[in-house]
Amino acid sequence: MSSGAAARAGPRPSEDDPDVPTAPVIRSDVPGSFARAVFHERHPELVRRVLDALPYGPGARRAIERLLTESTGGVLEPLGADAHDREQWLAWGDGLWGRPWGEAPFLWAESWFYRRLLDATGYFRPGAWQGIDPFGPFKAAELAGAAVDDELAALDGLAGLPGGQRARALLSSALWGNRADLGFGITAGAPGGAVTELVADDGDVLRAELERTRGGRICLIADNAGRELLPDLVLVDHLLADGTAARVDLYVKPQPFFVSDATTADLLAALTRLRTARSEQAAAIGGRLWRAMNDGKLGVRTHPFFCAPLPYHDMPDDLRAEFAGAAMTILKGDLNYRRLVGDRLWPATTAFDDATGHFPSPVTALRTLKSEVVVGLAPATAARLDATGPAWRTSGEHALVQVALHRGATGR
Ligand SMILES: O=P(O)(O)OC[C@H]1O[C@](O)(CO)[C@@H](O)[C@@H]1O
């Protein structure tokens, strides 16, 4: 990374291309902003819940409390000399060290918060707490909940639907599954309230493109575990079972991140939940996915960059090469969307194609709106939503399906 890359709250050098549209980077030091509320309201509540959920000893508890204080009023200090990823973070934070947290880009500062929270709990240190997910109890409770039983039972009803209708229903449940994010629930109330509307819906474009590329490789960048990952897995099974994809690569996080993001351990828990479900369909899907992993049709992949504080624009070449050649990459959720288009205060009518032109394959975003970032809206839609006040961007009651085929760039 070049010097000062992540330091300024303005455009990163690699995004300085005059052909790439740009907008102010979101920061958490703006009074009254959503980003500030995440640090000053959501994180304290999250920390309280983590400390209630696991019997951490005094050292870890103190470290977690210190992190909270530091993240709302302190400066950014590099990782200790013994941290396995110290050099990586030194580079990612080049130019930011020693500056107040609030001056860092919001995406950067949030990612750093989760990295430091793992540190504080002993996640990386040899010892009894190594590898223990601080969000594990929340994830487990959600997966064991009755709501999941009901959702899995509903799969039996879908089995008899005609193909097109079934595909639409599965896409829709993967989309709205993104509401069930545990971090979001901390301040937004329990997920599952009134769903309003799709503010952009490229569903038909997606279906036509998947038909056109039938039998290709599809990548799915997962977001949350539990009630989001289950419908994602059902969608993956559908893509493989009906031949839409010959292979699916499913990307999970290498470590706990943004509260409920799915790791390999969460994927295994979800698979077990499917395989042991009372619903015949759910159990059959779990069995098929298991075998698809056995025979390599379903690849489970990860990369340190999935916990990086940077936009996908800056993904390293080895990861870029994995997406290149995919018929489609589906990105789930709000955080992936922020990283895809850049965590900036874009005019909502900025073309999705332009904001995602850097991505190495055609892309689809399936996302409920839980942060201020949005692009690709029709001017009339943006104006109508803005007239209702700013909450539509963050309430989780709106969603979008956006597709960029990038045909010009890829020649597909
Ligand atoms: O799980 P998702 O859909 O990525 O949403 C997580 C969202 O929650 C927040 O972390 C706010 O707490 C957003 O910044 C983030 O985009």
UniProtKB/TrEMBL annotation:
Belongs to the damage-control phosphatase family. Sugar phosphate phosphatase III subfamily. It comes from the Bacteria. Residues 1-26 are annotated as: Disordered. It catalyses: beta-D-fructose 1-phosphate + H2O = D-fructose + phosphate; beta-D-fructose 6-phosphate = dihydroxyacetone + D-glyceraldehyde 3-phosphate. Signal peptide: none annotated. Keywords: Hydrolase, Manganese, Metal-binding. This is Damage-control phosphatase ARMT1 family protein. The lineage of its organism: Bacteria, Bacillati, Actinomycetota, Actinomycetes, Kitasatosporales. Its cofactor is Mn(2+). Residues 39-381 form the Damage-control phosphatase ARMT1-like metal-binding domain.
